[in-house]
Specification:
Length: 141
Amino acid sequence: MYNKLLNKPKINNNNMENQPNIEELKSKVGFGIKFWLEFDNKSIMGSGWAELLEKIEKNEEGSLTRAAKECGYSYKYAWNILKRIEKRTGMSVVLTGKGGRGGGGWVKLNDWGHYLLKIYKEYLEEIIKIEKKLGELINNS
């Protein structure tokens, strides 16, 4: 398959007039970078899961329901995210407490959760710098 990509294509001069302007095409070339944290070669956190941890961190009342809604997740899906991270790393990222008679427990990031969110943000800052440099390279070509 790769050999086919390296072979020079046959040029059909009859269609050359119908080809779009190469400069116009160049202006549409871009790229995207996705990254995630891994633990022991297992994915543990991408942008969506990091956003959930950030919402939990900023949520003063400790409501997982509220943090989940702010991310567009159901409570159950958000709780499953926290459990998946725990299963993959062997350690929970949150502290939890039971509510009063009416329920309404609370959830807060523990040290492990704070660390993972911190390192994710640090890596994200570096990725943004790399994206900017690559964008400049593409725009100058």
